[in-house]
């Protein structure tokens, strides 16, 4: 599912859409910096028909697109530079099965290109515009990375807070009044109980499989996993107070983990966290 955002480059709003984790920048918006909106398509067509541009596009597709039709590309390349040669982005995609450029209709409609190609198109606008485009795009990615780190740390903190509630329940139901073993061992067992339900392995098993990793299994959890882990800790505390046997709790928690992870991974709203 694609998500859209925008940056401002020299007072021009440039849309960016995410396709399978890759950023595609709107060439139509970029072209407005060179001409009015009605002629933006002509700017793109004039750029794509040159031999240099076709060679660049073809090279990009050969690297990243295993289904690129090289024979059709060579045919276009032999015609490049001829006064009669005309090529639109749509025709390029249809004939060569290219993935670096696409056109779409709607609110964020226009011709989009992978960021590598969009930066190259920036040279057709002006060197200054290209440099500002790269600068603003980098700023956007830095902001996104900072927000993702904040989200991860927030969920990690939430998981730790809920763990306090979780250990309180263990004190009430799992630790005998007259204890002969270290209570921390019981907590560790319950922590691994949740690791089994969510990750399918204990902390010790994870360390065996990842001997070079610095940190614990939960330190390498995804944002989705941390969300589910936080929920499992609270749910497990309730199940403990209800007196459920370990085997029953594990089955229930594992099913909950599967259901919630499936929902989160497919969630549009989670992928659009800003």
Automatic annotation (TrEMBL):
<dbReference type="InterPro" id="IPR017880">
    <property type="entry name" value="KilA_N"/>
</dbReference>
<feature type="domain" description="KilA-N">
    <location>
        <begin position="3"/>
        <end position="140"/>
    </location>
</feature>
<dbReference type="Pfam" id="PF04383">
    <property type="entry name" value="KilA-N"/>
</dbReference>
<protein>
    <submittedName>
        <fullName>KilA-N domain-containing protein</fullName>
    </submittedName>
</protein>
<dbReference type="InterPro" id="IPR018004">
    <property type="entry name" value="KilA/APSES_HTH"/>
</dbReference>
């Amino acid at each position: 599912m694609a998500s859209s955002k925008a940056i401002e480059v020299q007072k021009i709003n440039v849309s960016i859409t995410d396709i399978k984790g890759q950023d595609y920048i709107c060439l139509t918006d970029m072209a407005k910096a060179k001409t009015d909106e009605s002629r933006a398509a002509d700017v793109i067509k004039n750029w794509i028909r040159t031999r240099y541009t076709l060679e660049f596009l073809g090279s990009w597709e050969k690297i990243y697109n295993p289904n690129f039709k090289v024979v059709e590309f060579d045919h276009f390349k032999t015609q490049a530079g001829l006064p009669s040669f005309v090529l639109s982005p749509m025709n390029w995609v249809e004939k060569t099965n290219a993935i670096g450029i696409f056109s779409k209709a709607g609110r964020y409609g226009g011709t989009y290109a992978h960021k590598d190609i969009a930066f190259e198109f920036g040279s057709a606008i002006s060197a200054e515009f290209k440099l500002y485009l790269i600068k603003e795009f980098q700023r956007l990615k830095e902001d996104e990375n900072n927000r993702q780190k904040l989200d991860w740390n927030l969920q990690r903190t939430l998981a730790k807070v809920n763990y306090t509630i979780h250990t309180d329940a263990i004190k009430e139901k799992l630790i005998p009044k007259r204890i002969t073993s270290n209570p921390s061992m019981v907590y560790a067992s319950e922590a691994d109980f949740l690791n089994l339900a969510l990750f399918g392995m204990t902390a010790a098993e994870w360390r065996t499989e990842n001997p070079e990793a610095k940190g614990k299994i939960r330190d390498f959890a995804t944002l989705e996993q941390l969300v589910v882990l936080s929920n499992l800790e609270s749910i497990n505390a309730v199940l403990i107070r209800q007196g459920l046997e370990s085997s029953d709790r594990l089955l229930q928690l594992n099913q909950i983990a599967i259901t919630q992870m499936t929902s989160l991974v497919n969630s549009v709203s989670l992928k659009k966290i800003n």
